[in-house]
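Posting this for the archive.
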Amino acid sequence: MVRANWTGTPRTGPSIYISTSADNNTAQTYISWNGDSRVTQWRVYASQNETGDGMTFDKMGFETTYEFQLDWPQGVEEMSIWAEGLNGDEVIGTTQRVMVTREGQGGRIDDQSGLGSGESNSTVSAGGDSGNSTSADSQGNGASTSHFASTMMLVVAGAISLMV
């Protein structure tokens, strides 16, 4: 076996999947960047005007999950959520911004001129009265929950086959 230093620098940007709950004003984010080996932390933003401080947390494996309370200012009905991949203080990748509503229903991806294809192919699945789920990558491509589940199943299946 030959070992060497290797740095993964994918051609596509990071992806974010968001599930919100109107019942308790929470947002569950799932962030991944397939093939990247440089990100050490993620900074997540939730803002109605695309400003403010982000919440920073350590990258945890292939797909990092982070849950936080949404702070809805008076009169604001929708917010934009996105994440930046960090290596130290350097931002090396940014997901597309995903709009979520106060009611936890529906959702859309902002038009991101200059990012990837600029298309808005979001996947939104309303889960009863409790919330919605929206995902996007920085190329403007939607990604469904089943994509992440299939990927994780392949990883688990590969690990099991290596153990046998």
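The first strand starts at residue 15 and ends at 21. Residues 15-163 form a domain with the Immunoglobulin-like fold (CATH 2.60.40).
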